[in-house]
Amino acid sequence: MSPTATRGAEVSAERRSSTMNTTVTVSGTVSGSASGPASGQATEADGQAEGERALRHVHRCVAELRRGAAALLLAEDGAWLVAAAELASPATLARLDALGAQAPLLLLAPARAAAVLQGPAPGGADVAAVAFRLPAGVTPSQLRALADPTAEQPTQRPDLAGPAPAQGAAAAIQLAKLARLLPAVVVAPVDTAGDAAGFARRQDLLSVPAAKVLGYPDMVAATLTRVAEASVPLEDSAATRIIAFRPADGGTEHLAIVVGDPWKAGEPPLVRLHSECFTGDLLGSLRCDCGPQLRGALKLMADEGAGVLLYLSQEGRGIGLVNKLRAYELQDGGADTHDANTRLGYGADERNFMIAASMLRDLGFDAARVLTNNPDKVAALEACGIAVANRVAHAFPPTQHNARYLQTKAERFGHLF
Fold this sequence. Notes:
Helix content: 40-55%
CATH topology of the largest domain: Rossmann fold
Low-confidence stretches: 1-6, 11-37
Structural class: alpha+beta
Largest sheet: 7 strands, mixed
Number of helices: 17
CATH architecture of the largest domain: 3-Layer(aba) Sandwich
Number of domains: 2
CATH superfamily of the largest domain: GTP cyclohydrolase II
Number of strands: 16
Mean pLDDT: 87
Distance between the termini: 39 Å
CATH class of the largest domain: Alpha Beta
């Protein structure tokens, strides 16, 4: 380990020791515990073990949805079998029919539901999902068409069943989002006879509490740990180390690209939060400005002598590469970046910046000069306890290919150019 990395690790250890009684809530706020050192340490260890178990349960259920199978969701409003609409196999649909206490329902995010209804969705954007009754014998291809606005649309719409129960619907849609699938799920309420664990075991199902699914993004951020680091000289910055962080469930890694010695500077380091962009960063896509922003940030940090670029695995503002390509198809049909994401059923921006805050704290920083045009990044870091000394502008001239994209950033997302 280099001297600068060692210094950062020492600072990080000191910070962790001084904040070992800190609790992160689902809302993203930070609060201190009043327990004494002994009880605080025991509580933290117990809480960490419980959190890691919860992460694994969610991660496994996400994998079930990605392979076209169903998982058992335990919500305040009952137990539900849940399968992803775009991947549900005939066998999975038959299973939901056989085990469900009533016929399966299709849950769609409000924006997608409005498109299927060709009119306002009941409850508007305030509901987690809208429920539709599925016709008997519905096929996987019909489900995919209902879930995916880029697919050939069905000629017959399913019957509306109304807003879905709050917690169960929110968690079911969240499972699909965590799987980077379209936020459209087939659900069937089941009667577990008061023994959810026994029901899951007898039916060979993975199960997870809805509250753990909803709390997953924050739990992931709280369990990030360093797993590898090395010196990696870059074209724009020769004195660079890359540090990899992984959550406790073994999920997606995020990277800290550390330029120079940011611990030596007498002021908060220059920091950029950069969400991965396969098309822009790697392929040089002209549809966005991500590639120039990435390379420009590293060059600026090298010119200053130090900085930290957090490379976050949150492609397409958190919707994943496949869905980003779907969004591109919708943009080719006239939608802007904002509306393309929402037409897929996602929020306009699904990123979790608590991950960035956790990485900065682990590196030993609780303040930063943030290199961004996005005021939401500044607000998110501050909400997660990172003091933002100032915002440093990071804009590049538009081209004929990305001018509309940059205009949307300014007009719909509030970016400052």
